[in-house]
Amino acid sequence: IMADMQQEIDDLKKDKTTGVASWWTQHVGAGPLPMTGVHLQPTLEGMLTLSPDKKTITIGMPGIYKLSMEINFTTGTGAAHYIYLQVNGTTIGQRIGSNYGGFGYMNRVLELKKDDKIVFTTNHVYQTNQIHSCFTVEKI
Asked: Are residues 57 and 32 in contact, defined by beta-carbon separation less than 8 angstroms?
């Protein structure tokens, strides 16, 4: 399975029209979530950039994108918290209630323009880590 996944990643790197990048967070508390670590560096040069504080993803290439996220906690069972997926300050996706230890998978497919800004923000997350969180941007 790992060899097949590596082959898919290698193929994506060769394709100059599609790309993917993925991060994880260790943030605890409220506010925009910083992308603490990298699951996968952007496979398409110029597709996007991550701000110095790692809280804002800026689109570098216009096109159709799939934005997805999932975050589960390593401590805490959750509560009536929320998480928003925002583009240019407008909420395009929302999950309410982390009562069972996190926020389930959410995705949106939309057309993005150069310099559009993506932010994942919350009123609270409990401790999480690399294997419990994933924030992915795919140019499709």
From this structure: no
Beta-carbon neighbour count of residue 137 at 10 Å?
22
63-72 and 82-87 beta bridge pairing: unpaired
3-state secondary structure of 73: coil
Distance CA 87, CA 8 (A): 28
CA distance 44 to 98: 33
- Give the closest residue to 125 by CA, choosing from 69, 86, 73: 73
CB-based burial label for 65 (10 Å; 0-12, 13-18, 19+):
buried
In one letter, which amino acid is 138? Answer: E
Q: Are residues 74 and 132 in contact, defined by beta-carbon separation less than 8 angstroms?
A: yes
Dmax (CA) for the chain in angstroms is 43
Give the pLDDT confidence of 28-67 residue by residue, as tens digits: 999 999 999 999 999 999 999 999 999 999 999 999 999 9
Record the pTM.
0.86
The answer, yes or no, to whether residue 101 has pLDDT greater than 90, is no
Cα–Cα distance for residue pair 89/86, rounded to 1 Å: 6
Q: Hey, what are 31's tokens? A: 């506010």
Mean pLDDT, rounded, for 12-17: 69
